[in-house]
Every structure is written in C-alpha cells, then in structure tokens.
Design a protein that fits this description.
31% of the residues lie in helices and 11% in strands. By secondary structure, the protein is α/β, with parallel strands linked by helices. The chain is globular, with a radius of gyration of 25 Å. Catalyzes the phosphorylation of D-fructose 6-phosphate to fructose 1,6-bisphosphate by ATP, the first committing step of glycolysis.
Length: 441
C-alpha cells in the first residue's frame, strides 16, 4: 500500500559481470511508444548506458573503492517513496493483518487500530543479500566479479512485504490493474490475488483497465469494476480477464486519464517495455506532484527481469516447451539421420531453452542469445551435428528465438511495443542443416 516505483526501474544498472544472463538481456529496456498515436520514445536505454559507463570507471587504486561502490549501489537501488514528493504525507497504522478484522468504517477516529500486536510486518530498513556466493577467482564456474581480483562486495536490495505504516486511507483509494504485452500463464492468478489483497486492506474501488495502456485513451474501452466476487474463479481460465495489447497513448495522456478517473494506485503487469512505461508514468506523476503509487509486477515467461529469481509464467513455459521437445525427439529418433529443431521463446535470454533442454534430457545442442556460436567451421554447429549423426544416428536442436541474430539480415522493423522484429533463426538453421547434410552425409 506504500507508494513505490515499478519493481524494476529501467535506470537500475548492475556493474558489468560475467554471467549466463547477458548484460544486454538484463539492461536493455524497450522504448515505450505508440506507432499510431505518437512517435515519441522514452529514452530509457540511453540513461542506462550512461550509468553502465559510470559503473565501468571504478578506480580500483582508491583504497575506499569498495565502500564507495556499496554506497553507490544502495543509492541506485533506492526505492522512491511517497514522502519523497510529499514530505508531510500522513501515515496510518496498516489495515493489513492475517487475523480477521472489522471492516474499515467512519467509526474509526483518525486511524485504524489493530486487533492486537502483530509482528508480521517488514521494516523499511530490511535488506536481502543479492549475491550469496563468494567467488575466489574470476575463473570459478559462473563467477560474477566486480574487479579483476574478484573481491567480495556486499550488495543489498530492499525486502518486499507489508509495512506497519501505510500512506493511503483504503476508503479513499481507487486502484487500477492493467495487463500489457503478450499473454503469459498466471495473469489471471495475479489479477485475482491483487484484488483479494486490496480488499483485505479495505479498498472498495478496484477497476481493471482493458487491453493494456491502450485502455487509458480509447473511449470505446470502459474500465471494468473488480471485486472478490468477480475474480473468484478467474484463475481457472487462461489468458487475461482484462485483455492485453502492445503500445498505447503517450505518458501524458495516460496520467491525464488517471487524474480524470481518480486513480491513485496503479498495478502494472508486464515485461521490460511495460515497466519502462510504468516508470515513465511514475516520473510524470512525481512531476505533477500527484499522490499516486505505481506498482510493477514482472510478467514474462522469458524470466529476464533484473533481480527476479523467477517471473510468473516461466515454469509453465518450460513445461510446455518439453512437450515440443519430446515430439521433435520422437520424430528425429524414428527417421534415418533425423534432426529435430525446436525454436522456443527467448528474445534476449535463453532461460526457457536452457532449462527445458536440461529438464528434457533429449537435447543435443542448445543455442541461446547469451552465447555466440558459429554454424560453419571445425567447431561449428553443423560439424557437431555431423558427428552426432555418425555416432547416434539422430540429433535434436533447441534454439531460443533471439539466438544467432548476427547470422541473419537485419529487418530494422519494430512491433507496437518498440521491440525489434527478429529474423527467423529456426528457418535459417533448418535450411543450413538441410544443405549441409545433403552435401556431407
């Protein structure tokens, strides 16, 4: 219930590091734009690149570099609070408690007394250690080092959870939920739980904005009243109760619409581009001195959101991917010198492809965006496929959609969210494999 910015701000940058997740996958946030109404871009990546450049200029000869780095890290990962804009904002005892309580009513004088003392709240100064492995050498498997000597540097991030003090009276809140981008398993579950949790706090006015950010400006789309009764069983259905879309109106138009509707709490469900938009909305609200909370919920099956161990929808994506892998394996195993190729989601990261490959146990080659590869040559993919056919008689390849884009001609086209339209690496691999096997096998 506190006023916070999106869970992942596009301007938050980790220092350069060696990891399976590529820096590009972690740091590149798509521009929030609308190809129809407005061509303006929110240049989030430019600011990110500036901060990355700053992180790369650490003076390791300075004996205090470690403490300075920690202070800089803490500052960059500081979560904005409602009191930053409204220092005189009044706080109230939290209305959230695990025990059943009497609903909020005008009978309460100036506050919301708890039923009894409850130690289930999170202190604002609580932190979670981001890195839990102390690598002794940059050559250690999976090493993530800041300096050449792989010095241990503590990196702490804010702990999530209910706070003892809140800054909105629940009866004065109008909360809105919006789902953007593509469909993702679990959207309805998240919508349902947000509504139920808001009602536990005592919020009565909850609405859904239809079809992403587009719903803020299209007069044909009316907001949907939400309550526990409305969302009770939506988790049993796929898709999104609110619908999804890419793109949308300008940030100014969105905030204008929020003011007109009286929305002072916005829950945004989406991925990189959606959160770039959420951050822009947050900044516009700060600029206008509005008492509005913008809360980001990371939604992407790609699992490529910074600081998230696992985004919702990822597990389901991996499970479904194994069905495709199993089908390709059966086809390849049943044919003479059969080769199965499975292309999976993964624009800038290969988590689905990697984990589905490991889980299935049927993949011989897994290609992901984080690891460059060559098709030709003695150490190329095609030469290894030839070896597999000679020794096993068949092979199965799993490839993330964003892998090997350097092998394809650039399209320079973008979708409604500003994402670059990728070339079809699956078709390219299929054609290359076909030509190679016909000539060499």
């Amino acid at each position: 219930m506190e006023a916070i910015s999106p869970a992942i701000k596009p301007t938050l940058i980790l220092p350069p590091r060696r990891t399976l997740r590529s820096d590009h996958a972690l740091l590149s946030f798509r521009s929030f734009k609308n190809p129809t109404w407005n061509r303006r871009k929110i240049e989030v990546k430019t600011q990110a690149e500036k901060q990355l450049s700053s992180a790369q200029t650490i003076d390791f000869s300075d004996p205090d570099w470690k403490s300075k780095y920690q202070e800089d890290f803490e500052a960059r990962f500081n979560i904005p609070h409602i009191t930053d804009v409204h220092p005189d904002a009044v706080s109230y005892p939290s209305t959230f408690c695990l025990k059943m309580r009497t609903p909020v009513s005008p009978d309460f004088a100036e506050g919301y007394p708890s039923d009894e003392e409850w130690n289930g709240y999170i202190n604002n100064n609580d932190r979670v250690l981001l890195k839990v492995i102390r690598y002794s050498s940059p050559k250690s498997a999976g090493a993530e080092c800041i300096d050449p000597g792989c010095t241990w540097v503590e990196q702490w991030v804010h702990r999530a959870g209910p706070r003892e003090k809140i800054y909105f009276k629940p009866e004065e809140v109008k909360a809105a939920i919006v789902t953007c981008g593509g469909l993702c398993p679990g959207l309805n579950d998240v919508i349902r739980q947000i509504v139920i949790t808001l009602e536990i706090y005592g919020v009565k006015k909850i609405v859904g904005i239809p079809y992403g950010y587009r719903g803020f400006a299209d007069n044909r789309l009316t907001e949907m009243p939400l309550s526990r009764k409305v969302v009770q069983n939506i988790h049993l259905s796929g898709g999104s109760l609110l619908g999804v879309s890419r793109g949308g109106p300008t940030v100014s138009e969105i905030v204008d619409s929020m003011e007109e509707r009286g929305i002072n709490m916005l829950f945004v469900l989406g991925g990189n581009g959606t959160h770039a938009g959420a951050n822009a909305i947050h900044e516009e609200c700060r600029k206008r001195q509005l008492k509005v909370a913008v809360v980001g919920v990371p939604k992407t099956i790609d699992n490529d959101i910074l600081l998230m161990d696992k985004t919702f929808g990822f597990d389901t994506a991996v499970e479904e991917a194994q069905r495709a892998i199993n089908s390709a394996y059966i086809e390849a195993h049943s044919a003479y010198h059969g080769i199965g190729i499975v292309k999976l989601m993964g624009r800038s990261s290969g988590f689905i492809a990697m984990q589905a490959s490991l889980a299935s146990g049927q993949i011989d080659i897994c290609l992901i965006p984080e690891v460059p590869f060559n098709l030709h040559g003695p150490h190329g993919v095609l030469n290894h496929l030839k070896y597999l056919l000679e020794t096993k008689g068949c092979a199965v390849v799993c490839i993330a959609e964003g892998a090997g884009q350097d092998l394809l001609q650039k399209t320079n086209a973008t979708d409604a969210s500003g994402n670059i339209v990728l070339g079809d690496i699956g078709v390219h691999i299929q054609q290359e494999v076909g030509s190679f096997t016909r000539s060499s096998c």
